[in-house]
Amino acid sequence: MRYFLLLALIAxxxxxxxxxxxxxxxxxxxxxxxxxxxxxxxIYAFFAPNGFTPNGDxxxxxxxxxxxxxxNDHFNMTIYNRYGNQVFKTNNVSYGWNGNQGNTPAPQDLxxxxxxxxxxxxxxxxxxxxxxxxR
Length: 135
What we know:
The chain is mainly β. Helix content is 0%, strand content 52%.
């Protein structure tokens, strides 16, 4: 398995390669590709987007957080609408929100995302993030 980390989070001197990523010329950044065969490189990193567009075009259709170096048994993500009603919950870091409330598309709005993670060193991390759903 490979881990993808933003260079802003880690400066990796001994990584095998760094890749330049561009999504339609709008979002550009570098990422390190760190193989898990290098001992000690399973370090903690977390990234969450501040918006997504679940419109069926295949780009940003699902809200996913990226987490590296975590204990998968201690991951929780809960999403609330502006009225404090829970619209989504998962304990699987690979399972994201598709922008629906049940079978109905959620309205374009700002949502509160709460993420609780325990890293591989046993340290707890809690995040509260505002994410915009655009249609």
